[in-house]
């Protein structure tokens, strides 16, 4: 039996915390789909395609990771790729309450899909994409917090935005 997991998220942008969970998850599961959510309620900095390309670049060394995107219910996406596990990272106790609600709803929608929680490495426990974007916009040093490809993409994106381009 192949163990297939889906690691969902906005990944706007991917951080070293996300990458830590993906790399460790790839050691546990035979295949990990990193699934970028089309969240129409949020105004992302990067397009879904840009996020997917960044994730491809930083995970190219992990042979059992595949990058994809989805909209709609996560359990429906998981079923579409024959995954029976959702892989989620936890940074702090504050994440747990929200994740517990989501996990309970997913279990209600499909009792065959399990959620696998991994604690993020302590050095990344404070990281979020929002914090990274805010720091990067003001030229803070973020090289220890994101892959170099992401740091470069953030600098380019904010330079364009500040110059009035899209």
From TrEMBL:
Record keywords: ATP-binding, Coenzyme A biosynthesis, Cytoplasm, Magnesium, Nucleotide-binding, Nucleotidyltransferase, Transferase
Main location per the UniProt record: cytoplasm
Pathways involved: Cofactor biosynthesis; coenzyme A biosynthesis; CoA from (R)-pantothenate: step 4/5
Stated name of the protein: Phosphopantetheine adenylyltransferase
Residues reported to bind ATP: 10-11, 18, 89-91, 99, 124-130
Residues the UniProt record annotates as site (Transition state stabilizer): 18
Record Pfam families: CTP_transf_like
Gene3D superfamilies, alphabetized: HUPs
Subcellular location: Cytoplasm
Entry's family note: Belongs to the bacterial CoaD family.
Function: Reversibly transfers an adenylyl group from ATP to 4'-phosphopantetheine, yielding dephospho-CoA (dPCoA) and pyrophosphate.
Catalytic activity: (R)-4'-phosphopantetheine + ATP + H(+) = 3'-dephospho-CoA + diphosphate
InterPro entries xref list: Cyt_trans-like, PPAT, Rossmann-like_a/b/a_fold
Name of the coding gene: coaD
Family annotation (PANTHER family): PHOSPHOPANTETHEINE ADENYLYLTRANSFERASE
């Amino acid at each position: 039996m192949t163990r297939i997991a889906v690691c969902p998220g906005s990944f706007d942008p991917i951080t070293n915390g996300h990458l830590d969970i993906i790399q460790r998850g790839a050691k546990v599961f035979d295949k990990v789909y990193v699934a970028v959510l089309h969240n129409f309620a949020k105004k992302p900095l990067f397009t879904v395609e840009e996020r997917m390309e960044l994730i491809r670049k930083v995970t190219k060394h992990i042979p059992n990771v595949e990058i994809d995107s989805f909209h709609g219910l996560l359990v429906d996406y998981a079923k579409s790729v024959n995954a029976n596990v959702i892989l989620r990272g936890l940074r702090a106790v504050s994440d747990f309450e929200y994740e517990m609600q989501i996990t309970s709803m997913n279990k209600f929608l499909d009792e065959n899909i399990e959620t696998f929680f991994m604690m993020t490495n302590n050095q990344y426990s404070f990281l979020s994409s929002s914090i990274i974007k805010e720091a990067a916009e003001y030229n803070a040093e973020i090289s220890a917090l994101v892959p170099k490809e992401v740091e470069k993409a953030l600098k380019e994106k904010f330079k364009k935005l500040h110059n009035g381009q899209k």
